Amino acid sequence: MDKYVIRMAGAVDSARRLAAGWIVAWGTAALLGVTGLATLGSAARAAEPLPWQMGLQPPASPTMASIESFHTLLLWVITIITIFVLGLLVYVMVKFNEKANPTPSQTTHNTMVEVLWTVIPIVILVAIAVPSFKLLYFTDKTTNAEMTLKITGHQWYWSYEYPDQGDIKFDSNMLSDKELKPGQRRLLEVDNRIVLPIGTNIRLLMTSADVIHAWRINAFGVMKDAVPGRLGETWVRIDREGVYYGQCSELCGVNHAFMPIAVEAVSKEKFAAWVVDAKKKFASAPDAAGGGAPQLAQKKAD
Question: Which CATH number characterizes residue 289's domain?
């Protein structure tokens, strides 16, 4: 019995320390959250990564809005579970410590408790799975695509094709530090931005010419692997005009960090005017859609 009491006391002490650690961690997180929100304010509401940013980028598509809503749901579920477990730990420490309960119970089984801790997690998982699968199917593809953008990953740049706009093709390389203009984002700006119309269902087709890449723009809620020999599909509908940045999110070699993505979302009228200019601009570009490797090598050498 003495050994059993000693073990119980040790368990209670461990639970007390664990609870204290959780309280400190949650208090610190809350303090940092309040401080971060107070200092960032409205500056955090930009469709690009920012220093010390907290939370997700503002959604710029229905897909990202759905992802953010699902993220908020999961955050509430996790918070409630954590507070519940913390409450149990505090209750155990207060109710069953050595002083308050010198003679520990010999109970080894409780049918009701065992049923509850089996059924409740199942209910929680089902409640999470339903919106999760709905979101998964929603992001998969669109049945009413109004235009198509084909994306090809290379080591280490992107090629883009507009098959519905006269087969426009061009490469997109990261700008070096020497090429940056005032206000442009280092490691995110490119020589040729993608231009897309807002309020349009756009089919995105992705593949790779060498290794696996991943085309990702957080504000759109889009991340899709570009796999050699396969053609992946997803879609996006951009809600508002602006410039949106992303990066390759699959380790693809030594210059993986230098494959940015820049999308300029414009009105449909401006996009139609861009198409006219792009047909002239890229028709005379000898390195369009697949010939950007020497250009990138020269930039890296500079």
Answer: 2.60.40.420
